[in-house]
Write a structure and sequence with these properties.
The chain has about 350 residues and is of the alpha/beta class. The protein is about 40% helix and about 20% strand. Strand 8 and strand 9 form a beta hairpin. About 0% of the residues have low confidence.
Length: about 350
Amino acid sequence: MSLSVGIVGLPNVGKSTLFNALLKRQAALAANYPFATIDPNTGIVPVPDARLEVLAKMVSAKAIKPAVVEFVDIAGLVEGASKGEGLGNKFLANIRETDLICHVIRGFSDDSILREGSTDPKSDREIIEMELLLADMTTLEKQKQPKATKDKDLLFKWDVTQKMLKAAMDGQMVATVLQSEAEKKVGREMGLLTAKQIVYIINVDENVVSEQASQIKNYADLLEVSPEQIVIISAKIESEIASLADEDSVLFLEELGLEKSGLERLIQTAYDRLGLQNYLTAGEIEVRAWTIKKGTLAPQAAGVIHTDFEKKFIKAKVVSYQDFLDYGGWKGTKEKGKQRMEGKDYEMREDDVVEFMIGT
């Protein structure tokens, strides 16, 4: 599995500039006028993970394959988009398949960039989320009540549908009333926009991006959301980082007082919100990171590599990443008794280096 993120926001808040920087190429037209993005732009971004290169050197791997995030850049929404205003709800449909929504909010002070419906962060958030809610209400109101049936699944889905519709009509994001995994699954299967997790990217001026703690608190209070949902980014700085070699970007970030780029912080926040983690495989052919849900058991983790692996799972040979480094890879960890053979009930961990034993 890979993580899919939809980038939304009002026009001219910096979505396409950020998208271009994330992809390290001008894949979308970043222009100083509304609706510069007329079609959704999709790009695949590798998840930064320094462990992969280290492992590759240890096992003499021919290739490194990081986990990836798919970013979908959606044209600027405006008030009334759910009714066809601006470029209309065509663009709302483009984010129904994503796992998470990143709402980019204008926090920079450059008034030479035209404001198109943007007034202040709180009202910007309310405009976008109202459009998402109105689109979801349309979907929910179209659902038909099951008649003359005792099918528990259909009746459950209808109960959840009514619960979600009431929340939407009360102006609540649907995700706030979905409690069990079964209820969340109904929201996902219906493609409801407000059933998704939302992360707020605040596009700020370059001179305040290093003030992460205070900026996060200020915007969390202003938007009335959890600080864990806030990512502070300067799209201009991300564009500069994108043009630098890796070693130069590290020095640049140090000069700014930042430990990680905006991309790294965004991906980490997205992983945290969705409860995701990566495990690692390391062999001569390739070293690779695989994305799974936290709490995933070994057979299901193997199934991410290939569906047959889950069906034919026997055991998992597991070594912690640190032990793999300290004892020289597969051979050394075996000699030192640091390898573990785990069965079907083993819950995968973030630092696992794994080789699955698969039957025929």
